[in-house]
Amino acid sequence: MTKKKPFHLAKCLAVLTGALLLNSGLAAERKTENLILITLDGLRHQELFGGLDLEVLKATTKDGKPGGTKTHNRFWADTPIARREKLMPFFWREWMQQHGSVAGNPQKGSSVRLANRLLFSYPGYSEILTGQARDDLITSNDKVLNPNPTVLEFLRRKLGLPQQQVAAFASWDVIGVAVQHKAGAVFTNTGYEAYTHADPVIRSISRLQFEMLTPWDTVRHDEITFRLAMAHLKTHRPRVLYLSLGETDDWAHDKRYDRVLAAIARFDIFFKELWNWLQNEAQYRNKTTLMITTDHGRGDISLNWHSHNAQIKDAKNTWLAVISPDSPLRGEWTDGEPVVMDQIAATLCHFLGLDYSEQNPKAGKPIARIFGK
Ligand SMILES: [Zn+2]
Questions:
Q1: Under a CB-based contact definition with an 8 Å cutoff, are residues 199 and 231 in contact?
Q2: Centre of ligand 1 from the C-alpha of residue 60, in Å
């Protein structure tokens, strides 16, 4: 330490006061008080931006002639824009026209990419949740606690929230460990897991998950996950909610394209219900930022659309939607720097004025374009 110099101290205080005023000015402008992260497992950019892919439907229809099938009748239209609006009318007509924006359409020169090289689920979720991907600490989908602390743990600590106010609901059981480095750091209800609630309707939904099974041992129906997440939202009013839906990926692995499209259309109905509820609640209305993305892409042709791994190039390409009172962007992003999935954790924190590099200096930085910069 050097000798005390009162003059310099006064100068320092003046600078400090200026900085505080600037910060409080920014804080006053910031509207976000709640965060909702949603992931749709392995939902391809092809379906999000272009709706039904006719080549894939042909390849998965018995005689190769999809015309007249239920799926073709429901989702086919002549242009990609008309097709995607048939698949996700609420997402495209309400959210993207009035409230948010979406990056990752290659036809518009926009790119969202994974930093990890493995291109399957746990590495993808960990990249989203920790902001760190390049060290390849996770090399399997084994159900083990995240080797790095996550953004959910950081948010709970920084905001000083009780456990139930930072909650993760997931269809796939591995998400229960992917969201936390320390067991019990955040509230989780994932895979086939009962949910305790005073309302008998919610209790019966919780019970149904064990009776109406999916074809997969570790993934329950998205409908159950969504219903339980909504019950938690209404009861415990979390500031941070992570909703992780999974059926799109599992139906794709089973080559059931009809079910993949039906699952995507169901997400859209969930989105509408969630949004209408949020917009009717003072705690959430115009104070909630939603980020929606996926953990990986998949193959881009009818031979490999169902699969994803390090050898399938297009599995690296994902997409990211942002609906926020603090983002001026609307509709589809065009051109610009590629977005990297390891930036999502820091971006979520930035919406609340928090600096995620405090927890993980190796994580990707906030996506400046979202904030109009
Ligand atoms: Zn998969």
A1: yes
A2: 18
